[in-house]
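Sorry to interrupt, but I need a hand with the structure work. Go ahead and set the record down below:
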Amino acid sequence: MINLNLRGVDKISQIKEGLKFKGLYLVDGCFSDSFCDELRTQVLNAVEQEAKDYPSDEMFGRILFAPVYGKKFLEVLEAEEIFEIADCVLGWESILYTMTSSCLPPNGNNYTSRIHVDTHLEIGDLVPSIGVQIMLDDFTSSNGAPQFLPLEWSMSTPTESDFSQHAKQIEAPKGSVLFFDTRCWHRSTANKTEDWRCSLLLSCCRNWMKQRFDVVEIMKGVDLSNCSETALKRLGISSHPPGSYKDFFKGIQRF
């Protein structure tokens, strides 16, 4: 189990309040350098693989669904302290909507550099989903640290002028985690350095919502024999309905 020192009523309430009123909350020093370095290597290997399999200049730097690569990506799903915060905002046993990457190539940018939101979904007063960005490098103004528009300014589509005036740039050391309401407008800035700027991005949603992929199908080729119940739960396995009458009456999970 990964220990992130995010537990405690005070810390969780601070993050929840930050998400409610500002739409984002940054926590420094959550993951160790060694864990970040291993995860970064796996992210870049997956980015390279997907660039070969699904070439696209706009999408370069993005992994569509990281858990299909196993290893460290599945370990991240055991970071229960992150999901405790997601549960606090989204309700009991929140699940993974998707896990992707947000990486910028050297001296460049990509699709993340446009002003955008991660969801347009509105369900009354409920927060539909939250983003969890794990910074695998130091985030600086030189390597593409993102800009976020606080939630109070995100209720309508911002103009370039309004965004530039009110957005906050998120600079933080490697291993930090940014929690954000996925309805906040944001963008990456240009990476002006000679190296990749990498992060892993989780989107957590309510357990009754549909995920980006059918995880039962997309994960069939992945060895989950050593995957913990915690990770399987956060993948959304327990929220999947039974596939037949037989499974229903026997209480059989689809995995």
